[in-house]
Fold:
Amino acid sequence: MEALDGNAIAGRLVEVFGIEMTTATGVCAGCGARRQVAELMVYVRAPGTVARCPTCEAVVMVLAKIRGINCVDLRGLKLLEAAESPETGLF
Ligand SMILES: [Zn+2]
Structure:
């Protein structure tokens, strides 16, 4: 399956976090690589979407929509940092 980049999940992440997250920085729990969300390798398939670390290919994010509710598993990330958003004031 061909990998997309993190921009493929930009809309889903806005639904979940309420802000633009592709420029957020994530730290892989597996190898410690620090990458922007836009750099992740994304595999879109039903029922879930998987984002992998481009360095070690560990799964860092799993997104699924279950009965209309967005579920996000971030257990593959040690840290996820988003810049302060001037629009929402979040983070
Ligand atoms: Zn990694």
Notes: The pocket of zinc ion is lined by residues 28, 30-31, 33, 53, 55-56, 58 (CB under 6 Å). The helical segments are 10-17. The radius of gyration is 12 Å.
